[in-house]
Protein backbone atom coordinates (compact mmCIF):
# COMPACT_ATOMS: atom_id res chain seq x y z
CA UNK A 1 0.00 0.00 0.00
CA UNK A 2 2.79 2.39 0.96
CA UNK A 3 4.62 1.41 -2.21
CA UNK A 4 1.62 2.39 -4.34
CA UNK A 5 1.26 5.72 -2.54
CA UNK A 6 4.97 6.46 -3.02
CA UNK A 7 4.70 5.56 -6.73
CA UNK A 8 1.68 7.83 -7.16
CA UNK A 9 3.43 10.66 -5.30
CA UNK A 10 6.47 10.37 -7.57
CA UNK A 11 4.23 10.33 -10.67
CA UNK A 12 2.36 13.47 -9.58
CA UNK A 13 5.64 15.19 -8.69
CA UNK A 14 7.22 14.42 -12.08
CA UNK A 15 4.08 15.47 -13.95
CA UNK A 16 3.94 18.73 -11.96
CA UNK A 17 7.59 19.49 -12.69
CA UNK A 18 7.16 18.71 -16.39
CA UNK A 19 4.01 20.84 -16.61
CA UNK A 20 5.78 23.73 -14.88
CA UNK A 21 8.73 23.55 -17.29
CA UNK A 22 6.41 23.51 -20.33
CA UNK A 23 4.16 26.33 -19.08
CA UNK A 24 6.93 28.58 -17.72
CA UNK A 25 7.69 30.37 -21.05
CA UNK A 26 3.97 30.94 -21.65
CA UNK A 27 3.38 32.28 -18.13
CA UNK A 28 6.46 34.54 -18.34
CA UNK A 29 5.38 35.80 -21.75
CA UNK A 30 1.89 36.53 -20.42
CA UNK A 31 3.28 38.52 -17.47
CA UNK A 32 5.68 40.49 -19.70
CA UNK A 33 2.85 41.35 -22.10
CA UNK A 34 1.25 43.38 -19.28
CA UNK A 35 4.55 44.97 -18.17
CA UNK A 36 5.77 48.37 -19.49
CA UNK A 37 8.70 47.96 -21.87
CA UNK A 38 10.80 50.42 -19.87
CA UNK A 39 10.65 48.12 -16.82
CA UNK A 40 11.50 45.07 -18.96
CA UNK A 41 14.56 46.86 -20.38
CA UNK A 42 15.65 47.62 -16.81
CA UNK A 43 15.49 43.91 -15.95
CA UNK A 44 12.22 43.92 -13.98
CA UNK A 45 10.80 40.70 -15.41
CA UNK A 46 8.42 40.09 -12.49
CA UNK A 47 7.10 43.61 -11.98
CA UNK A 48 3.79 44.17 -10.20
CA UNK A 49 3.07 47.24 -12.38
CA UNK A 50 0.64 45.91 -15.00
CA UNK A 51 -0.77 47.86 -17.94
CA UNK A 52 -2.78 47.31 -21.13
CA UNK A 53 -0.70 49.81 -23.11
CA UNK A 54 1.16 47.03 -24.93
CA UNK A 55 -2.08 45.47 -26.20
CA UNK A 56 -3.41 48.87 -27.24
CA UNK A 57 -0.24 49.47 -29.25
CA UNK A 58 -0.53 46.03 -30.88
CA UNK A 59 -4.05 46.66 -32.19
CA UNK A 60 -3.70 50.39 -32.99
CA UNK A 61 -0.08 51.02 -33.98
CA UNK A 62 0.71 47.76 -35.81
CA UNK A 63 -1.10 45.86 -38.64
CA UNK A 64 -1.61 42.85 -36.34
CA UNK A 65 -5.38 42.73 -36.96
CA UNK A 66 -4.70 42.54 -40.70
CA UNK A 67 -2.24 39.66 -40.18
CA UNK A 68 -4.73 37.85 -37.92
CA UNK A 69 -7.45 38.16 -40.56
CA UNK A 70 -5.14 36.72 -43.22
CA UNK A 71 -4.24 33.78 -40.97
CA UNK A 72 -7.90 33.14 -40.17
CA UNK A 73 -8.98 33.19 -43.83
CA UNK A 74 -6.11 31.01 -45.08
CA UNK A 75 -6.32 28.49 -42.22
CA UNK A 76 -10.09 28.15 -42.61
CA UNK A 77 -10.00 27.75 -46.40
CA UNK A 78 -7.18 25.20 -46.30
CA UNK A 79 -8.90 23.27 -43.51
CA UNK A 80 -12.15 23.08 -45.51
CA UNK A 81 -10.27 22.09 -48.66
CA UNK A 82 -8.30 19.38 -46.90
CA UNK A 83 -11.44 17.98 -45.28
CA UNK A 84 -13.33 17.93 -48.60
CA UNK A 85 -10.47 16.16 -50.41
CA UNK A 86 -9.81 13.76 -47.52
CA UNK A 87 -13.50 12.80 -47.12
CA UNK A 88 -13.92 12.20 -50.86
CA UNK A 89 -10.73 10.12 -51.16
CA UNK A 90 -11.34 8.18 -47.94
CA UNK A 91 -14.90 7.34 -49.04
CA UNK A 92 -13.63 6.03 -52.38
CA UNK A 93 -10.92 3.91 -50.72
CA UNK A 94 -13.35 2.38 -48.21
CA UNK A 95 -16.67 1.95 -50.04
CA UNK A 96 -15.94 1.91 -53.78
CA UNK A 97 -14.42 -0.91 -55.80
CA UNK A 98 -11.89 -0.05 -58.51
CA UNK A 99 -8.67 -1.47 -59.86
CA UNK A 100 -5.32 -0.81 -58.16
CA UNK A 101 -7.05 0.61 -55.07
CA UNK A 102 -4.43 -0.66 -52.64
CA UNK A 103 -1.58 0.49 -54.90
CA UNK A 104 -3.05 3.98 -55.26
CA UNK A 105 -3.59 4.22 -51.51
CA UNK A 106 0.03 3.14 -50.92
CA UNK A 107 1.29 5.80 -53.34
CA UNK A 108 -0.88 8.35 -51.54
CA UNK A 109 0.63 7.41 -48.17
CA UNK A 110 4.17 7.46 -49.57
CA UNK A 111 3.87 11.22 -50.13
CA UNK A 112 3.94 11.61 -46.34
CA UNK A 113 7.63 10.63 -46.43
CA UNK A 114 8.47 13.58 -48.69
CA UNK A 115 9.68 16.45 -46.45
CA UNK A 116 7.96 19.79 -46.87
CA UNK A 117 11.29 21.54 -47.53
CA UNK A 118 11.74 19.42 -50.68
CA UNK A 119 8.41 20.71 -52.04
CA UNK A 120 9.05 24.42 -51.57
CA UNK A 121 10.92 25.11 -54.82
CA UNK A 122 8.47 23.18 -57.10
CA UNK A 123 5.51 24.82 -55.35
CA UNK A 124 7.09 28.26 -55.62
CA UNK A 125 7.84 27.81 -59.34
CA UNK A 126 4.28 26.63 -59.96
CA UNK A 127 2.70 29.57 -58.12
CA UNK A 128 5.05 32.02 -59.86
CA UNK A 129 4.29 30.62 -63.33
CA UNK A 130 0.56 30.88 -62.56
CA UNK A 131 1.09 34.47 -61.37
CA UNK A 132 -0.49 33.63 -58.01
CA UNK A 133 2.23 34.85 -55.64
CA UNK A 134 1.03 37.30 -52.96
CA UNK A 135 -2.50 35.88 -53.06
CA UNK A 136 -4.71 33.64 -50.95
CA UNK A 137 -4.54 31.03 -53.72
CA UNK A 138 -0.75 30.78 -53.44
CA UNK A 139 -1.01 30.40 -49.66
CA UNK A 140 -3.60 27.63 -49.80
CA UNK A 141 -3.52 25.65 -53.05
CA UNK A 142 -0.31 23.65 -52.34
CA UNK A 143 -1.89 22.29 -49.13
CA UNK A 144 -5.43 21.45 -50.22
CA UNK A 145 -4.73 17.69 -50.21
CA UNK A 146 -3.45 15.95 -47.09
CA UNK A 147 -2.28 12.33 -47.18
CA UNK A 148 -2.42 12.22 -43.39
CA UNK A 149 -6.02 13.43 -43.49
CA UNK A 150 -6.96 10.73 -46.03
CA UNK A 151 -5.35 8.07 -43.85
CA UNK A 152 -6.97 9.33 -40.65
CA UNK A 153 -10.48 9.75 -42.06
CA UNK A 154 -10.24 6.46 -43.99
CA UNK A 155 -9.47 4.69 -40.72
CA UNK A 156 -12.50 6.34 -39.16
CA UNK A 157 -14.75 5.31 -42.09
CA UNK A 158 -13.57 1.68 -41.82
CA UNK A 159 -15.16 1.49 -38.37
CA UNK A 160 -18.55 1.96 -40.02
CA UNK A 161 -20.39 -1.43 -40.31
CA UNK A 162 -20.43 -2.55 -43.92
CA UNK A 163 -24.05 -3.63 -43.50
CA UNK A 164 -25.06 0.02 -43.40
CA UNK A 165 -23.55 0.60 -46.83
CA UNK A 166 -25.31 -2.49 -48.21
CA UNK A 167 -28.59 -1.34 -46.68
CA UNK A 168 -28.19 2.11 -48.22
CA UNK A 169 -27.77 0.47 -51.64
CA UNK A 170 -30.99 -1.48 -51.12
CA UNK A 171 -32.80 1.71 -50.08
CA UNK A 172 -31.56 3.44 -53.21
CA UNK A 173 -29.48 6.13 -51.51
CA UNK A 174 -26.95 7.92 -53.66
CA UNK A 175 -23.32 8.18 -52.54
CA UNK A 176 -23.83 11.80 -51.52
CA UNK A 177 -26.94 10.94 -49.48
CA UNK A 178 -25.14 8.06 -47.77
CA UNK A 179 -22.24 10.37 -46.87
CA UNK A 180 -24.49 13.11 -45.50
CA UNK A 181 -26.95 10.91 -43.60
CA UNK A 182 -24.70 8.10 -42.32
CA UNK A 183 -20.95 8.46 -42.82
CA UNK A 184 -20.39 12.01 -41.61
CA UNK A 185 -22.56 11.81 -38.44
CA UNK A 186 -20.99 8.45 -37.53
CA UNK A 187 -17.42 9.79 -37.98
CA UNK A 188 -17.98 13.16 -36.29
CA UNK A 189 -15.17 12.76 -33.74
CA UNK A 190 -12.59 11.84 -36.38
CA UNK A 191 -13.65 14.71 -38.63
CA UNK A 192 -13.55 17.29 -35.82
CA UNK A 193 -10.14 16.03 -34.70
CA UNK A 194 -8.67 16.32 -38.18
CA UNK A 195 -10.31 19.71 -38.70
CA UNK A 196 -8.70 21.10 -35.54
CA UNK A 197 -5.34 19.56 -36.43
CA UNK A 198 -5.50 21.02 -39.95
CA UNK A 199 -6.44 24.51 -38.71
CA UNK A 200 -3.63 24.60 -36.14
CA UNK A 201 -1.06 23.32 -38.64
CA UNK A 202 -1.90 26.07 -41.10
CA UNK A 203 -2.23 28.77 -38.44
CA UNK A 204 1.32 28.09 -37.17
CA UNK A 205 2.91 27.78 -40.64
CA UNK A 206 5.86 30.12 -41.12
CA UNK A 207 8.20 29.08 -43.95
CA UNK A 208 5.77 28.90 -46.89
CA UNK A 209 4.00 32.24 -46.14
CA UNK A 210 7.46 33.81 -45.95
CA UNK A 211 8.50 32.36 -49.34
CA UNK A 212 5.20 32.92 -51.20
CA UNK A 213 4.78 36.60 -50.27
CA UNK A 214 6.83 39.71 -50.90
CA UNK A 215 4.54 42.26 -49.23
CA UNK A 216 1.90 42.53 -46.48
CA UNK A 217 -1.05 41.92 -48.83
CA UNK A 218 -1.77 38.39 -47.54
CA UNK A 219 1.00 37.80 -44.99
CA UNK A 220 0.01 35.86 -41.88
CA UNK A 221 0.40 36.60 -38.19
CA UNK A 222 3.55 34.48 -37.88
CA UNK A 223 5.30 36.67 -40.45
CA UNK A 224 3.87 39.74 -38.72
CA UNK A 225 5.56 38.75 -35.46
CA UNK A 226 8.88 38.38 -37.26
CA UNK A 227 8.46 41.83 -38.80
CA UNK A 228 7.90 43.39 -35.38
CA UNK A 229 11.34 42.12 -34.36
CA UNK A 230 12.91 43.61 -37.48
CA UNK A 231 11.29 47.06 -37.32
CA UNK A 232 11.70 50.01 -34.97
CA UNK A 233 9.70 48.09 -32.37
CA UNK A 234 12.54 45.56 -31.94
CA UNK A 235 13.39 46.89 -28.45
CA UNK A 236 9.74 47.22 -27.38
CA UNK A 237 9.58 43.86 -25.63
CA UNK A 238 6.24 44.55 -23.98
CA UNK A 239 4.62 45.11 -27.38
CA UNK A 240 6.30 42.01 -28.85
CA UNK A 241 5.16 39.84 -25.95
CA UNK A 242 1.60 41.20 -26.25
CA UNK A 243 1.60 40.47 -30.01
CA UNK A 244 2.91 36.98 -29.31
CA UNK A 245 0.13 36.29 -26.81
CA UNK A 246 -2.45 37.51 -29.33
CA UNK A 247 -0.96 35.20 -31.99
CA UNK A 248 -0.97 32.10 -29.78
CA UNK A 249 -4.41 32.73 -28.27
CA UNK A 250 -6.36 30.86 -31.01
CA UNK A 251 -4.03 27.87 -30.62
CA UNK A 252 -4.53 27.80 -26.85
CA UNK A 253 -8.31 28.18 -27.16
CA UNK A 254 -8.59 25.36 -29.73
CA UNK A 255 -6.38 23.01 -27.70
CA UNK A 256 -8.28 23.78 -24.49
CA UNK A 257 -11.75 23.43 -26.02
CA UNK A 258 -10.91 20.54 -28.36
CA UNK A 259 -8.73 18.37 -26.11
CA UNK A 260 -11.60 15.88 -25.74
CA UNK A 261 -11.74 15.41 -29.51
CA UNK A 262 -7.94 15.21 -29.80
CA UNK A 263 -7.75 12.41 -27.22
CA UNK A 264 -10.67 10.36 -28.52
CA UNK A 265 -9.99 11.01 -32.21
CA UNK A 266 -6.29 10.23 -32.16
CA UNK A 267 -6.79 7.02 -30.17
CA UNK A 268 -9.98 5.55 -31.60
CA UNK A 269 -9.76 7.12 -35.07
CA UNK A 270 -6.20 6.31 -36.08
CA UNK A 271 -5.34 3.32 -33.94
CA UNK A 272 -7.80 0.52 -34.64
UniProtKB/TrEMBL annotation:
Membrane-topology annotation of the record: Multi-pass membrane protein
InterPro entries assigned: MetI-like, MetI-like_sf
Compartments, as annotated in UniProt: Cell membrane
Transmembrane stretches, start-end: 12-34, 67-96, 103-124, 136-157, 178-200, 237-258
Keywords: Cell membrane, Membrane, Transmembrane, Transmembrane helix, Transport
Keyword Transport attributed: yes
PANTHER family linked to this entry: ABC TRANSPORTER PERMEASE PROTEIN MG189-RELATED-RELATED, SN-GLYCEROL-3-PHOSPHATE TRANSPORT SYSTEM PERMEASE PROTEIN UGPE
This protein's name: Carbohydrate ABC transporter permease
Source organism per UniProt: Weissella diestrammenae
Amino acid sequence: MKKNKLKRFLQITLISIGTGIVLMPLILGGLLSFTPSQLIMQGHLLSTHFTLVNYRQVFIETPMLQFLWHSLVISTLVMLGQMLCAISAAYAFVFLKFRFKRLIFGICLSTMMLPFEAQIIPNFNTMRDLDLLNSYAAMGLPFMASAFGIFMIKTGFERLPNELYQLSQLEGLTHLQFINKVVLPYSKVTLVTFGLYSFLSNWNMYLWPLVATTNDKVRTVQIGLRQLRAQDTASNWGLIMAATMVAVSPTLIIIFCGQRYFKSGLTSGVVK
